[in-house]
Structures are given as C-alpha cells and as structure tokens.
Amino acid sequence: MSTVLVTGGAGYIGSHAVKALRAAGHAVVVYDDLSAGHRAAVRGVPLVEGDVRDAARLEAALRRHGASAVMHFAGLLSVEESVREPARYYDHNVRGGLSVLDAMRAAGVDRLVLSSSCAVYGNPVATPIDENHPTDPINAYGGSKLAVERALRDYGRAYGLQSIALRYFNAAGADPDGDLGEDHDPEIHLIPRALDAARGGAPLRVFGDDYPTPDGTCQRDYVHVADIAEAHVRALDAPAPGDGARVYNLGTGTPHSVREVIRSVERVTGRRVPVEAAPRRAGDPPVLFAAAGRIERDLDWRPAHTALDDIVATAWRWHERHPEGFGPTTP
To answer: All domains of the chain, ordered by start, with CATH?
Structure first.
C-alpha cells in the first residue's frame, strides 16, 4: 500500500478520508494549517503544519515521508463568502492547488485525488446532473474548483500527472462510529445549523423561500461524508486513469429541500427547529442533484447511506456526544 499525503486532513471531509485510508491499509501523512481543521481530528498519523500555498514545505513533506500520492482537500468552501471575496478564494484554492501540483512534480509524485465540487456546474440546464453537463460556475468557489480541474488536465498532458477529481454534491452526516464529525466556526452547512437550532441555538435562517421548487426552498443532494471518503479511497486504488485526468460525480441522485431537511431533523431529534426567513444568498442555484452512474460503473462505488433521516442521525449522534465539537480551532 502507498503513503498518501492528505492536505486538509484535519478538516471535516479530509479527516474522514484519513480514517478510510487507514482502514484500507494505507499509510497517511496529514498536511494542514489548522485554520479550519482540528488537531484533535488527526489521530495516529503524522501531522505537518503548513500553508497549502507553500510549495517548498509541501515538497519537503512529500519527500520526508516518502509519499507516492496526494489527496487534496485543503481550501476555502463557503459559496456565500466566495461571492463577497473572490480574490481570497482564487488565492487559497487556485494558488493552493497549483502549489500542490508543483510540489508533487518537484518530488516526483504523479498520483492525485482532488476534492472538487458540483459548484463547477453552476445553474443546471438539466437534472440530474452528469459529468457531461456544461461547467459554468456562478460563484468564485465553483470557479476556483474548476480552475484547478483544468490545471489537472493540462498537467496530465504535459507532465504525466494522473488525477481523479471527485465532484461531490452536499457533504453531510458524520462518522457512523461517532469518532469524527462536522465542526466549522462559523458553521455554514444546513444540517449542523438545523441541529444547533434544535438544541436551543439561534433560529435556523432559511435563505429564500421563493425558488422554483415544490416548496420554494433550495433542493440539494446530500451525500454522506463516509461515502465520500470511501469514494476517495476507491479513486486512489483504481488503475491510473491513463488519459491523465478524469472526473466523477458523487451523490445519491435524490434531491431534498431545505424544508425536508428541517422535518428530518425534527423527526430524528424529537425537537422543533425554530426557523427565521432570510433573503436568498447570492450564488445559490435552486436545484442541484447528481447522476453518479459513471463512478458506479468505473469504480463500483455507490452510496451506502441514502436515507436522509439516517444521514441526519449520524450527525445528531456526533453533536450529542461532542457538544463543543473538537474544541477550539488552533490557528
């Protein structure tokens, strides 16, 4: 088995991927600046603290630990913030992504699995969205992800980089064992915000109720974080793409509205979720859900957690057991 350097491995999805990698027999090194990740989420593997834009430090970590592959999660992830501060997103996500690629090239590492996003598609012209759907991001988050994907293709042609980009839809839930979960500050994702409201926190703000959907609220495809982690391991263990760069969607193929999520949280917790209406957020498409047949055919991946209540229940168990999350984020 290989040694894998995981950028952003102290974060939400990255930490779940680290656990899945170790379960599959891989050695792992985490590279994270801990600006959003948590030291407590890194267990049993080396942690190299560093900025993902520091190519020299990345190269040194790759060489020192003998890594033969990289999983790249590190980056900024708020759609709303990316509309307000696009420069920050292109700096961290694009410059950071290119830094990873250049460090890999310098260290002679030619295998990468990229954490990408359905935000590359923008407003869908057809649903469900497959990988042939036009890419036309409507926010800087999606634009920055697409820019890195395009770099993968070009680096593959010129330098022989073998990469797979996983465009997942809405990551949700928590480790079924209860060891890991979602802990952002501030929290921007719907399910943990709804759970916090159910626990007595601030009312859940619903951003827009006049979308062209059955109940007026946005619809999203919620895919369990453990399924996302498993897809990354399958992508790593698959034969090299050969053609340089491939992309796959990750999703369940079933959209759920904000109101459906609220009802699910109320069923799972047995508590009411107080709600507060808010204006639409810039950069939010009305509907996003996946056609994920390509990865099922090529890598035999399909989500194990498809029921919304089951996904919410894993997140609820994590938040009940860890009311303070992992503790303070370490800058």
So the answer is: 3-172+223-250 (3.40.50.720)
